[in-house]
Amino acid sequence: MKKILILEDEMSIRDFIVFNFKRAGYEVFEAGTGNEALNVFSENSDIQLAVLDVMLPDIDGFEVCRKLRAQNKTMGIIMLSAKDLDEDVLSGFISGADDYVKKPVSASVLVAKVDALYRRISVVSQPAVQPEPAKQPSQVFVLDEKKRTATKNGQPLDLTPNEYHILKYFIEHPDVVITRDDILQAVWGYNFNGDADIVNVNITRLRKKIEDKPSKPDFLQTSWGKGYIWKTKDQ
Q1: Which element (helix H / strand E) includes 229?
Q2: Which residue of 94, 97, 110, 129 lies most exposed, with the fewest beta carbons within 10 A?
Q3: What is the mean pLDDT of the chain?
Q4: In what order do the strands lie in the sheet containing 49-53?
Q5: Would you give the DSSP letter of residue 133?
């Protein structure tokens, strides 16, 4: 059964969210504070998904997200908040969230978003269908499509599922301009209706992990006014 952690300090809202996820077939774990959520996760480390409120009576949801992400690179995390300023949304993505949903949101939309996220993260644990090593034009970066892992010059890269899929997409499309919409469709899916800034945040995080000098990238370069381009001339 799919397991989800719901962190919401307002009891009436939490009860409503929990009811709808149980009805959708999820095993639900509840928490009303950030520390309680971390304790619940430490006792149930096989939880695959989390919906985190931002404004809490103790540590905020961003901090909870960072700590969950540090413990589990592959779990799906959605921030849920009435705070909708650009800096709040970016803080959610920088903390490691996969999506940021602004309150109020209907239960059906929230469940649909979590369902879509679950399908996306489930790919990480499933064997790839007929992997084709010959499609890897990179000599520096090598992808293991069964394990969904990557190495650079033989050294493992610590990537989240989204970062892995972005890297894979670029390596498979070298020396052509890739737009943000291209990345959104390839990684998050055609039905994604969250903030497109999630692409920029993930690109920034990915560069820090794969580039020797992230501010002057050799591989994942910006094509100003157009998008990004994966350069192979030095490989």
Answers
A1: strand 227-230
A2: 129
A3: 85
A4: 27-31, 3-7, 49-53, 76-81, 99-102
A5: G
